[in-house]
Amino acid sequence: MKIRNLKAGRKRQLFILGGGIMLFLLLLVIRPSASEAKATWLWNTKLIQQHSEDIIAFAKKQRVKIIFLQIGGNVKEESYRNFIREAFSAGLEVHALNGKPEWALRDHRREADVFLDWVKEYNTASQPEERFAGVQFDVEPYLLDNWEKRQASIVKEWVENAQSWTRKAKEMDLEIGAAVPFWLDDLDVPGADREIPLNRWMIEKFDYVAIMAYRDEADRIYTAAKATLEEGDRHKKPVWIGVELGESKEGPGVSFHERSFTFLTGEITKLVRLVKGHSSFAGIAIHSYEPWRDKLVKWEQSLKK
């Protein structure tokens, strides 16, 4: 009887061990590879005041390299310093994020200058490990009500303003990037001596771009990002490929919001294989932190059932 019980116990141990190995192998399959760099946008700045440890732990677990952190929300400078110091210790970069559609207009250029001046003054008053490693402009003038009627003149002002921002950032010795839509290759730079696609111009002027190639399948994301990746290859500039996880008002096929976490990670793995021939590929930029975190938590909870 004792021998029979002993054998049964060993069988149970082997079953449990085997199940653990299978779960481990499953995680290896559906989670991103270790060599894959990530970035994410963090819009709710107040989260860094009470949840900095959670954010940084999540970022480390998901192999995030850069956090694009929205500036605002009446967050005190000391909160930024504490968060960036913790992120720095974890091997993460934090870039100051700001922008709105109106910033493309000449009359609103001063607002962007105020943002850059604030970053400069903040970095000057902070220790090296507390400083922003860069800035990112998220300026989307195509959301303006008069975009269709004034597209050419708005693009002209957008280009002039972006030229001013990049020049100012270089004077500050600060890396500057831009979040851009995937279709900028359909627009030309106004007033240029020859035809220059706007995506090429952005690649030339900014240190990096994060292309909003918002689709919910790897093939379609790659198709949307390809033209900008090729410009990045030619100009030796990094290109982050942005994917959307939040709810979208643009219709179906844009966001992974309704997709499972396993489907998301599977498509990201496919996407990384598709872009491996592009030297400009910097990694996947997830939009944004909160829906990404929520999707991961939901998936982890499902494993425990």
Could you characterize what this model shows?
- Helix 5 packs parallel to helix 6 (147-171).
- The longest helix is centred in the first third of the chain and has 29 residues, at 2-30.
- The chain folds into 2 domains: 1-30; 33-303, TIM Barrel (Alpha-Beta Barrel), CATH 3.20.20.
- The protein has an 8-stranded parallel beta barrel with strand order 1-2-3-4-5-6-7-8, surrounded by 7 helices.
- It is 50% helix and 15% strand.
- It is α/β, with parallel strands linked by helices.
- The chain contains 10 helices and 8 strands.
- Helix 7 (198-205) links the parallel strand 5 (175-181) and strand 6.
- It is globular, with a radius of gyration of 22 Å.
- Residues 1-35 have low confidence and may be disordered.
Short synopsis of the structure:
By secondary structure, the protein is α/β, with parallel strands linked by helices. The chain has helices at 2-30, 47-50, 52-61, 77-89, 109-124, 147-171, 198-205, 218-235, 261-274, 289-303; strands at 38-42, 64-70, 93-98, 134-137, 175-181, 208-212, 239-244, 281-287.
